[in-house]
Amino acid sequence: MNKLLTPAFFVALGAGLLAGAGIPDTLDAPNYKRLSPSLAVSGKPSKEALASLKQAGFRTAIDLRQPAEGVTSAKESVEAQGLKFVSVPVSPDTFTLEDAKKIEAVLKDQDAAPVFLFCASSNRVGAALAVIEYRRGRSKDEAIAEGKKAGLSSSAMEKAALRVMDQEPAAAAKGVK
After folding, report:
1. Domain containing 160 — which CATH number?
2. Range of the domain at 94
């Protein structure tokens, strides 16, 4: 057996890749969480945090806030760093399956990673991620639980996420993983 391909090699390789990802464990933003080496979520980041996304290792920022919530200034700050900015305005009344698909497409794009996904409190972020998890084959309960880990906190956004989940069968129900 090739001694380079031992389990210890894979652990060391994985640790190196994780360290190389470079997105921070903390950021000046409420409810900030690093969910993976390629995704962090939060509520509204400070102006300083937005201005330091490139330095923090991000390539893309997705803002789920409505236009009146400061999206234009966030867009300018992010794009001034040469990063990609994506706006997908979400509210409990307007959240759709198409919104979730737009977010999911960016998250699947390797060239976009690492991604910083945010809204005002991380509530809408959690709802969007819950729908994405459901589309990946999780049950509604499992998907909502994952959404809550990412910040889903209001009953209105939870109901919106469930409404959107009802617009399309889960991947597991369709035989897709």
Report:
1. 3.90.190.10
2. 22-165
Give every strand in the sheet of 39-42, ordered side by side: 33-36, 39-42, 115-118, 60-63, 84-87
- Pick from 26, 15, 38, 177: nearest CA to 110: 38
| pLDDT tens string 156-173 | 999 999 999 999 765 545
Per-residue pLDDT at 38: 94
Q: Is residue 66 part of a domain?
A: yes
The answer to whether 122 and 43 are in contact (CB under 8 A) is yes
Q: Cα separation of 96 and 139, whole Å?
A: 19
pTM: 0.84
Q: What is the largest CA-CA distance in the chain?
A: 61
Q: Give me the amino acid identity at 81.
A: Q
Give every CB contact of residue 60 below 8 A, 6+ residues apart in sequence: 83, 84, 85, 86, 106, 112, 113, 114, 115, 116
Q: What is the pLDDT of residue 22?
A: 73
Q: Is residue 170 part of a domain?
A: no
Packing angle between helix 155-165 and helix 140-149, nearest 10 degrees?
A: 140
pLDDT at 42: 97
Split into its structural domains, the chain has a count of 1
